[in-house]
Amino acid sequence: MTSRNSYITKVILSLVFSLLFILILMIPAKAIAAQDEPYRLESFTVNPPGQLKVETSGGHIEVKGSSSKTVRVEMYASKNGRNILPEDSNLDDWDIDISKTGNKVNAIAKHHNNWSLFGGNHITISFVVYVPREMSSDLNTSGGHINIRGLSGKQDISTSGGHLELTDLKGTIKARTSGGHISINDVEGDLNARTSGGHIDVQNSKGSLDVKTSGGHINLADVSGTVDARTSGGSITADFKSIGESVNLRTSGGNIKISVPDKTGLNLNLKGSYVSTNLQNFSGKVERDEVDGTLNGGGPQITARTSGGTVSLLFQ
Known about the structure:
The chain has 316 residues and is mostly beta strands. It has a domain at 1-143. It has one helix and 23 strands. It has a 23-stranded mixed β-sheet that branches. The chain starts with a helix and ends with a strand.
């Protein structure tokens, strides 16, 4: 085989392995619970409020709140996409810590060595954890998805590339992914969410919302409260039930569409290549590409900026 043919073969194999790995990551986190039997199962009793720390390399994490005082930790291990049990592998290359100290529960899986993601013996460890509703968490995976629902407290959620799904949460939430999408439903409190390139979708949430993406779109539906939403290139859609202290929406190139309750008093500062709205009882400047002034006597500030798109303000 010539050096050129050898190089082409290596490139093709690399692409195939990369595609297989991406397909594995695309499996939803909730699919973990569909496995017949966990590799390991542990249960602990805590007196809420409690703390949960979950950490793994490449696997998914799912956390579900309930009315029980029991923390149930299910650990799943898979090899080449197939669920494995202790009789299949003893996980000698892993440090596993599933333990309780006071009201804090740890579920941590760390690999001893730096192995290749595309190695033939690669094992992935995922966790499904059932906890009392009053539980704070620190969740981290180097590449899998994270799904968390039904908790009240402080949540710190991070993945290097997977998607994040946050549902029915109350408290202070910090969520990070390097490239995945973020889905947020029924969240109340202070939320700070970041993705380097994925989309952010928020549904029926209230409080203080701070969301940013480097390139995806942002969709806010049925939200209430103070909002700061920014994207470097995608569009922003914001549908408000009510408005808190302020709203700040910015994109470098996409469109911005805002819907607010009719007859709401607002201070408006809207600017884009074109501003589309139908204003009544307004005092201030109205131009093709800018609106600046007070509506219905003034109120919370709405600022919207786009460098190349249209800003639309609708009333409902």
